[in-house]
Structure formats: C-alpha cells, structure tokens
C-alpha cells in the first residue's frame, strides 16, 4: 500500500539523519577498502593527520551496518504491526457482517409475521363481506328522486337532501344519486354539478358514459344512468339548469320533455320548450348554433359536426371538445353552451374556451363569467 511505503521511507530517512548527526556527518565518506584502510593512500594524509578534522570514534562501516540492522528491525516491526492490523480489521469486518446477518434474520422474521397477520386479516374481511352480502341485497329507495319524494311524503315531514339509491324501471342494477329535496319543492335528481373546479372534467368518452366525481360535490352522473332514468315507461322529465355568476347573480334555464337516445345514437339530446332567465343557449340564435338533437362528444369521440373543421370566431376548429378544454358535451359546430368546463375565476385562455359557457346569459352585451352550475332532472305530470 502507498501509505505503508511512505511511512517506511520517512522512518528510514529519520534514522539515517540521526546516525549522521551522531557520527559527526562522516557517513558521507567512501566505504571502499582503500578509503577505509588505516594506511593513507599516495599523496593522501591519514585521517588522524587531517588538520581541524576529528577522527571517527566508531568506524563508518560498522555504523552503516548498525543502521542497516536497525532499519531491518524497524521494517520487521512495521510488517508485524501491519499484519496484526490486517487480522484485527478482518475480524472486525466479520463481526460487523455477522451482526448485520443477525439483524436481517430478525427483520425477515418480523416481516414474515406481519405478512401472515395481513393474510389473516384479509381472509377475515373477505369472510365478513361474503357474510354481509349473503344476507340480503341493498334495497333501493325508489326509481328516481321524484319517486323517492312521492313515496316518503306521507311518512316523513321533511325529506333531507343527500345520496339515495335508485333503481329505474327495466334496468338490472341500482346506483347512487344525489337528490335535492329542498330546491323548488324537491324531487330533483342531480345529473351534473360544477362548483369549485376540484374535479377533473377532462375525461374520455368511457368516463362520461359511466360517470365520475363525488356525488356530494362536483360530479357527472353518467350518460347511461341518466338515459335509464329519463326513459322509464310513462314518464316525462324536466331539465333544470341553475347558474350562479362570479358576482353572485343567480339565473336558470329550464326545458320540458328532456330525454336522451341510447349509446348507439351517442346519447343524442332532445329538449322541449324553454323557460327561464338565462336565455336558450342550447338552441342559440340560429340553426348552426342549435345543439338540440346533437349527439354527445368527448375528446376521443368526435360527433360535433365540424367535418373536417368549422370556424369559431377567427379560428379554425377541428374538435369542439379540444377547443372547450378537452371536456365532453353535446357540441354542434361547438355552439353556445358547455356546462362541463371549469368555473370562471380568470380571463379565458387565448384561443380556448376553458370556462363554463352559457353565451345567452349576458350583462351589457358580454357573457357572464359563471362560477357554478347544477343540472338536475325531475318528473313532470303526464297527460295519461
């Protein structure tokens, strides 16, 4: 090792220097037999006759021999020390590794024990779930929120708003919905709510078909569920859109005879007569803006009528869904309504319609910035 060689060289240099100082610096004299001989060479004086120079008390060859022996002794001692150090280091490493192996064995045993406990708990949970579901299925509260309200009116003086389970006629499954029982005499099934922008409405077709979000907050109920509710036998449904602007002004748009076609028709929307204070943005101001009877579009399923493109202001648009912040809606050459965009709190992004749009609700000729919207449906009386 480099540091060992350096130590030996330093020690040897110190010993040589010490010997030189102890012998009057005479180690520099030649060591040949001729020069160390007691008989002076020709023309050369013996050591004792050199003027002003002391004679060596110990012959130089003996001093050099002693130094060599001392160097060899020190080197041997250093080698023995290095060997002892190596042995102690290897022993220390073995002890550390053995300690680590013991610690790993302990941890492995603890992990195995925890895994066994997790498996036991999982088995118990599965058994409990099986026992719970084997007792009886969860019963629905009614066919829709209007039906629930009618069924509970005689038994409950005040029906609370909240999450209920509905089972529309001629369907195979029940599902949860949020029922508003306080707004305009109650019985409303909420199909969409946009309030704070915390839920991501940039969704593909499958999500809009199945539904997403949190029923008590922002959510989209799902096109399939809405289709099953509004297409029950001998029923008519009203669509009510409640809007609140950024400056806390409320308005609404209402349509009777609201229904959807099935998925083979891309859930095409059908609207009856309009009533309200926000204007009929669904139909717009001319036929090109009319979104009534339009099929539903999503970022990955384009049914917006822009074939291959359409003009929106000064822009050429190939996909209204992409233009409207990658959200899904009943677009027809984009149109004047999209309630699935983000609640407005700032200016629109350049070239994009990122905020909730209901273009016919204006102030001083400018569309209002909409902070929240709720779409809800309720049964209305039939002629039969």
UniProtKB/TrEMBL annotation:
Outline the extent of the Fibrinogen C-terminal domain: 136-381
Localization (cell): Secreted
Key words of the record: Coiled coil, Disulfide bond, Glycoprotein, Secreted, Signal
A single Gene Ontology biological process assigned to it is: blood coagulation
Main localization of the protein described in the UniProt heading = secreted
Q: Where is the signal peptide?
A: 1-19
Protein's name according to its UniProt entry: Angiopoietin-like 5
Q: Which organism is it from?
A: Kryptolebias marmoratus (Mangrove killifish)
Q: Provide the taxonomic classification.
A: Eukaryota, Metazoa, Chordata, Craniata, Vertebrata
